[in-house]
């Protein structure tokens, strides 16, 4: 594939005030079930996601990191606390409004790619516009061209997901998440199903999107290599944030996680 | 191996409910037809008429033709269910293959499912058929004063029982063929994909289908021409009809999808319509089976209506007035509609259950769509569009075939005296289209509700 960084990304059309957070949760709790069988997945989380940065949320299985992502993205209602996208409160919104919000202002990248097998790569990328029922503007058409080229998918546009490798599928998924220029891109273990070379591609793309294009990204992962792409690393344990630092190399992150685990 | 199969059977019981219902309906239909033959023959005999053999022959033919048609529709519907249930088990089957089960062993477990569905449906259907017969006989006796009574013959049980078992075992075998070829390596891969015909099989099918269809058309044409000379054209045209419909059924996975694509292009380009078309085209085998189950019913209704109208027109033209003939033919048409309604009901149940099961299989995909911004209303519309696309394509193909068969059938018999154009009464057309659309909309209600209830978080949870 061509080097994804060989061409400059276009500047983001509208850059909101860099100071206010792109997304925010305040005193967030989430409890599944009740009584003796209640599981407290989140026990009071405060987190502000900075614009144009990659924030990695780390932690072991059951630490609450996936629940945090689902709640921030409005996929799960919180038990208490507030969730904001920009300065808009999304807690308590009805399903219809939330769905439209996800469609226009959020992007998703999943561990298992989740492309629609019935659509080809280009149709998958255009899916958000299909769902919105809006046509694809000439401006967006040009943006899709750039994404396809930059993600090394130009000659794969009309392939079905089944005809693509895992790494290619995930690049299509990233293009699908970037195509609407969302306020926040939520990535759930995006390298979890990939080999190390494809993982590196995906991480480079996410870095390029944030660094050059100002894309805000929330990256949930347990992999120190993936987290090393982040500008900030937040570690969760038992439903609370227990560590929050500027990240660093995969080795340093792994070391810090190990030390924390040993304590 | 057997305990695994039995456990799987228990888990899939809910999904088999519609198939068992279909078998029950067809079995009850068989009991009713057979009992009618017996009771009528007995009544004719007791009246001292010597037409018993003719009555038996006539009713026997009706039984064979209409029961046969209902069985074909049922097999199509049931094999869809089986192939979908088995597709859901692909990973388990691959795991079994991985630890040493042979393809043959896997296929054998599918027999258990086939026998279970066939037996359940047959028993329910026979009981229902006998009860309905008893009620009908009592009702007719009471209202007409005729001395009719229920006559038991072993066929009442044997025909539906054996027929059901043969049909369900055949359907389960057809459904399991793909899955038993699952390579052990699939255990390590992710979810099952749509059933795509391998390139060579697809070409083979389309060639066979087209050849049969063309041969059938040739005979239909010949029958019409012969019919102009002498009223024996039907003897040539009838096998032509059978051949051509067999060609359509065999070639359907290749021939039907392009029609679906064409009709889909005429719909407004909304997300729901576009996704519905893509879903249908992604699994041509399943889509073709569902469409064909609709096609058969519509073809029958149209064929008899067109032929009936042409008979009426011919007698009016030829005899100057034919009101008596018209009322007789109208009566016959009503009987035909009633007989065909069984296969129509089976097709409707099949459509609903196929959609429901496809929702079950696409939980994750639908969750992804919801996460990416498909609203609950769009989700329901997507299912509605899938259902209506199947129905509309079924109606179009059925109307074309039915009109052709009706036209050829009527002219191959009447052509020597009166050669007329096909007649399709507007009222029939309106009732058919409205009825089919209503059926399609109804069939999509439950699956649509189920699909719109899928939480978008499913996309993240089920890794």
From TrEMBL, chain A:
Residues 1-20 are annotated as: Disordered. SUPFAM superfamilies: P-loop containing nucleoside triphosphate hydrolases. GO terms for cellular component: membrane protein complex; plasma membrane. Residues 23-263 form the ABC transporter domain. Residues 1-13 have a biased composition (Pro residues). InterPro entries: AAA+_ATPase (IPR003593), ABC_transporter-like_ATP-bd (IPR003439), ABC_transporter-like_CS (IPR017871), ABC_transpr_LolD-like (IPR015854), MacB-like_ATP-bd (IPR017911), P-loop_NTPase (IPR027417). Gene3D superfamilies: P-loop containing nucleotide triphosphate hydrolases. GO terms for molecular function: ATP binding; ATP hydrolysis activity; transmembrane transporter activity. Keywords: ATP-binding, Nucleotide-binding, Transport. This is Peptide ABC transporter ATP-binding protein.
Automatic annotation (TrEMBL), chain B:
Keywords: Cell membrane, Membrane, Transmembrane, Transmembrane helix. Its main location: membrane. Residues 65-182, 340-455 form the ABC3 transporter permease C-terminal domain. The keyword Membrane applies. It comes from the Bacteria. InterPro entries: ABC3_permease_C, Macrolide_Exporter_MacB. The chain crosses the membrane at residues 12-34, 54-79, 114-140, 152-174, 210-236, 242-267, 288-315, 335-360, 381-407, 427-446. It is a multi-pass membrane protein. GO terms for cellular component: plasma membrane. It is found in: Cell membrane. One of its GO terms (molecular function) is transmembrane transporter activity. Pfam families: FtsX. The keyword Cell membrane applies. Belongs to the ABC-4 integral membrane protein family. This is ABC transporter permease. It comes from Amnibacterium flavum.
């Amino acid at each position: 594939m061509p080097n994804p960084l060989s061409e400059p990304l276009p500047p983001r059309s509208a850059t909101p005030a860099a100071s206010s957070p792109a997304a925010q949760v305040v005193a967030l709790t989430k409890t599944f079930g009740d009584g003796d069988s209640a599981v407290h997945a989140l026990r009071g989380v405060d987190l502000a996601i900075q614009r144009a940065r990659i924030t990695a949320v780390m932690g072991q299985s059951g630490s609450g990191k996936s629940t945090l992502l689902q709640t921030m993205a409005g996929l799960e209602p919180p038990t208490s606390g507030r969730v904001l996208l920009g300065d808009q409160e999304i807690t308590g919104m009805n399903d219809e409004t939330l769905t439209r919000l996800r469609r226009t202002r959020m992007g998703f990248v999943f561990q298992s790619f989740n492309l629609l097998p019935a659509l080809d790569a280009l149709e998958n990328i255009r899916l958000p516009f299909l769902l919105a029922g809006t046509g694809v503007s000439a401006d967006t058409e040009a943006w899709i061209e750039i994404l396809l080229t930059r993600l090394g998918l130009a000659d794969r546009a009309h392939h079905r997901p089944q005809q693509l490798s895992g790494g290619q599928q995930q690049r299509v998924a990233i293009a699908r998440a970037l195509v609407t220029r969302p306020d926040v891109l939520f990535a759930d273990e995006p390298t979890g199903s990939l080999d190390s070379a494809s993982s590196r591609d995906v991480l480079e793309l996410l870095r390029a999107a944030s660094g050059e294009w100002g894309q805000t990204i929330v990256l949930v992962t347990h992999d120190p290599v993936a987290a090393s792409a982040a500008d900030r690393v937040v570690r969760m344990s038992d439903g609370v944030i227990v560590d929050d630092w500027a990240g660093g190399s995969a080795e340093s992150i792994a070391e810090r996680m190990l030390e924390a685990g040993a304590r | 191996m057997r305990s695994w199969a039995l456990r799987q059977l228990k888990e899939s019981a809910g999904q088999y409910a519609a198939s068992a219902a279909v078998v029950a309906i067809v079995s009850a239909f068989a009991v009713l037809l057979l009992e009618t033959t017996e009771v009528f023959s007995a009544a004719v005999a007791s009246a001292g008429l010597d037409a018993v053999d003719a009555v038996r022959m006539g009713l026997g033919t009706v039984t064979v033709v209409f029961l046969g048609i209902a069985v074909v529709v049922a097999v199509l519907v049931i094999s869809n269910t089986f192939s979908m249930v088995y597709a859901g088990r692909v990973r388990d089957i691959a795991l079994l293959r991985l630890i040493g089960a042979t393809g043959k062993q896997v296929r054998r477990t599918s027999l258990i499912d086939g026998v279970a569905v066939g037996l359940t449906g047959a028993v329910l259907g026979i009981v229902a058929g006998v009860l309905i017969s008893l009620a009908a006989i009592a009702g007719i006796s009471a209202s007409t004063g005729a001395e009719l009574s229920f006559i038991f013959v072993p066929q009442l049980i044997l025909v539906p029982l054996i027929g059901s078992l043969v049909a369900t075992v055949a359907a389960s075998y057809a459904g399991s063929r793909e899955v038993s070829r699952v390579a052990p390596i699939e255990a390590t891969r992710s979810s099952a994909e749509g059933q795509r015909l391998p390139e060579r099989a697809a070409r083979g099918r389309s060639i066979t289908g087209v050849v049969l269809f063309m041969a059938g058309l040739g005979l239909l044409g010949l029958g019409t021409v012969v019919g102009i000379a002498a009223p024996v054209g039907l003897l040539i045209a009838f096998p032509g009809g059978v051949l051509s419909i067999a060609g359509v059924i065999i070639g359907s996975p290749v021939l039907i999808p392009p029609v679906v694509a064409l009709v889909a292009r005429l719909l407004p380009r909304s997300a729901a319509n576009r996704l519905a078309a893509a879903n249908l085209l992604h699994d041509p085998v399943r889509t073709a089976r569902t469409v064909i189950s609709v096609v058969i019913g519509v073809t029958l209704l149209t064929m008899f209506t067109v032929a009936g109208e042409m008979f009426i027109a011919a007698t009016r033209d030829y005899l100057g007035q034919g009101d008596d003939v018209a009322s007789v033919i109208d009566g016959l048409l009503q009987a035909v509609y009633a007989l065909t309604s069984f296969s129509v009901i089976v097709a409707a149940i099949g459509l609903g259950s196929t959609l429901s099961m496809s929702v079950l299989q696409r939980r994750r995909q639908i969750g992804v769509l919801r996460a990416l911004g498909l609203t609950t209303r769009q989700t329901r519309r997507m299912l509605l569009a899938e259902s209506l696309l199947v129905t509309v394509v079924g109606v179009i193909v059925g109307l074309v075939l039915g009109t052709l068969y009706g036209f050829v059938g009527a002219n191959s018999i009447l052509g020597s005296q009166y050669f007329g154009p096909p007649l399709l009464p507007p009222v029939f057309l309106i009732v058919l289209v409205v009825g089919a659309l209503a059926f399609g909309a109804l069939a999509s209600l439950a699956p649509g509700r189920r699909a719109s209830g899928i939480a978008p978080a499913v996309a993240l949870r089920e890794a």
